[in-house]
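Input record (Table S2, row 525):
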Amino acid sequence: MSSNLEFLLESHNGISAKIAEEVGFKGLWASGLAISAQYGVRDSNEASWTQVLENIEFMSDAINIPIMLDGDTGYGNFNNVRRLVKKLEQRDIAAVCIEDKLYPKTNSFIDGDKQELADIDEFCSRIKAGKDAQIDDDFSIITRIEAFIAGWGLSEALRRAEAYHRAGSDAILIHSAKSDPSEILAFKKEWGNTSPVIVVPTKYYTTPTQVLDEAGFSIAIWANHMIRSSIKAMQESAKQIYESSSILTVEGEIAPVKEVFRLQGVSELKEAEENYLPKKEIATEAIILAASRGEAMGSLTDNQPKAMIPLKDKSILEHISDTYRNHGINKIHVVRGYKKESINFPELNYIDNDDHETTSELSSFHKAIDQISGDIVCSFGDVLFKPYLLQLLDECEDDLVIVVDTQWKDSVNRDRAADYVNCSQPHSRANYGDSIFLESAGENLGEDSIHGEWMGIIKISSAIFPTVRKEVESLSKLENFDSMKMHHLLEHLCRLKQPIRVVYTTGNWLDVDTLEDVIRANNFL
Ligand code: SPV
Ligand code: MG
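Output record (sulfopyruvate complex):
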């Protein structure tokens, strides 16, 4: 097939424009029908022309390919068209198509044969005024001939095409409501190459595209397929959610929230924030416990600890320290142990646990708090989490705060050692604003008493810090200290009636323990 024929896809708002651009369309048709429909109104100029302008401005901002606006009849006479052209150029719109009917228009597929056509001379005045108004030579005015739609024949269509061409029209859109292409082919045969001809095969959709190409048409417009596909998808989801009173079954069938963010360009905003926003000065320091090897990772940890395993473009440890830094925590201490020489980023502070082979988490923490005394947030070198969790900690004034995932039942840690917690109230019974405190923590809590899984993130204020240090000191005297984990400290503090505030949340973190987790982490980031 020769490649003369180009295609425009209908779009009706910023996100549909973006999607069309991403799949490869070189240009878009901002359909009047679809824009009206997404506003929930009829294609009868019920949406005002400024509402259309506002909509198309969002589309234009979202993409870099040209847009042809379906400008209906031009929203009035010559004066309205010239003002429209001016406003479209200001919004970087490449072309407008105006049809030879009267304002307010009706969609061509609703009793088209009863529709009144514009007087030819009057319509030509709209074309001329539009062409005179444009500043950019590349702006195009397409004239749409509705003669076939309104029940007139080929000679009327040609008579109009001649007149519009003489008035300055850049291309003709020849419309037809027939289910075969006979009308548009007959027109093209007579019109030849006098000016480019555009078609809208909505009704004669069974016509092979090759036929349109061979006939010499310049552009085929797929005029309403984005709005129609989204209507069907929304109807199916709405029905399913309504009938099941749940969102569980649709979850796998709809775009993930992450995809919404991607289409909105959230990552660009994150970068811009880095560039423009003043860096927050936060006194809090971070401790990352990263001394262990991570045996479950196999040969990936032969020469480096788990925290140094690369995920996407950087190591787990760099992802974690970036999360802290992006939150304004710049003083970051890393407790190293296994293959400590492989961790040497200059911007991080290091504390070594040279007994890493015979000791556990609490021993690493002990070594760290010997050297620090301020407000801290502590987390593990294999736990990725979203910055939002640090925000949750900030919002809590309490001296000791932990973040707990309520979705412990679905956790990938289900068959592994996980830090379960029992709290003063389960999430399900807590009211907004209730303060919830830790009652007990451990790997072996009974199912009935588990209220969530601790993500390993704890905030310790400078006010409580001396107490915590004293308690870690006293635990360090115990025979089994070397095998103690952080949850033993939590449990110990609970027994001492030291309030540990619990912040419940759902997801937004990932414990990277196994090779499958590495794959999960790639999606998480
Ligand atoms: C539109 O998409 O709004 C059009 C094409 O004008 S049609 O609906 O076929 O008239
Ligand atoms: Mg239209």
